[in-house]
């Protein structure tokens, strides 16, 4: 899957996460996470995002995530939506 | 045992917080809404979020209903294709008509076969909110054996009829009657339109009782605060339960003595009265108001 444009999904409301994706060269996956629970769950958030990126076969992407306490299912859903919108 | 559908709580499909809370708010059924509660620009986002929520959140204590978009919009078909694959209990079909219900049934049958789900497992509730749908409600229900109920949509229906929607609800008297009668005839649930003033609990009580009095079996809610009132109206009263139990006891006695028709407190008791008593006792057992053996708790 090739990312061709900038796209967003999600919100900054509680229990949600705002994801912004933009194109990068093939093989480059950049991740920038900001979270109210970074210390406790930063690694988990990163894993959920990377898992979705791999699952969707994304070639290269930069992802900025602003988390407001989203559960895993919300993170996965918002990343999928943002990536679909960026094709 | 049949699914209890006294209350159906609408929850917006694009709100993670509300999707997480939905299961614990006390409603018998929750309607995860992909239609009116979701803006046109967020339809794709809500569809994926609801799919992930159903896959992840423990909704085992409630009936999960997803209101998809109408099939004559660009969102309807993808909604069904994505949501049916995570097996919600039920789909709520807006502006339901006979052809659309038949088409939804066909799509669901195909998806169930592809996914290895039991055929006919995903149920349908028809949202009746057009004059045509209302007049044809019998055939709408008959269009698919999956149809387990009808939800009356008072707001859209009155808009379609070109009349004002009022708090008193006189203008939907006929619609409530029609839906209740047809649903009773076809033995499916008849769910009343929501009461939209979430701060008027007395009004909600009256409106719910009005629907129940016409034969409706449950009511939709748009706020969790409405659930308790709806349940209290649809629960049988202690007096109703006591009388129903007495009728069934008297019936057993009469059967032992070989009597077909008998009287209790000077009134003749026949089959319709016995059937109503059985329904009340059955509901009392399901709500935990009386024990399975019929004794008062």
Automatic annotation (TrEMBL), chain A:
| Subcellular location(s) of the protein | Cytoplasm
GO CC list: cytoplasm
Which molecular-function annotation in GO is an example for this chain? lyase activity
Query: Main localisation, per the record?
Result: cytoplasm
Q: Looking at the keywords, is DNA repair present?
A: no
Keywords, A to Z, come to: Cytoplasm, Lyase, Phosphoprotein
Per the record, the domain of life is Bacteria
Q: Which residues carry this modification: O-(phosphoribosyl dephospho-coenzyme A)serine?
A: 14
Pfam families in the cross-refs: ACP (PF06857)
List, alphabetically, the InterPro entries matched. CitD (IPR006495), Mal_deCO2ase/Cit_lyase_ACP (IPR023439)
Q: What is this protein called?
A: Citrate lyase subunit gamma (Acyl carrier protein)
Q: What is the lineage of its organism?
A: Bacteria, Bacillati, Bacillota, Clostridia, Eubacteriales
Automatic annotation (TrEMBL), chain B:
Quote any Pfam family the record assigns: HpcH_HpaI
Question: Where is substrate annotated to bind?
Answer: 67, 129
Gene Ontology biological process terms, A to Z: oxaloacetate metabolic process
**Keywords, in A-Z order:** Lyase, Magnesium, Metal-binding
Which intervals hold domain HpcH/HpaI aldolase/citrate lyase?
6-224
Residues engaged in binding Mg(2+): 129, 156
Name the cofactor(s).
Mg(2+)
Q: Keyword Lyase: yes or no?
A: yes
Q: Is the keyword Metal-binding in the record?
A: yes
Superkingdom of origin: Bacteria
Q: Can you name this protein?
A: Citrate lyase subunit beta / citryl-CoA lyase
| Organism phylogeny | Bacteria, Bacillati, Bacillota, Clostridia, Eubacteriales
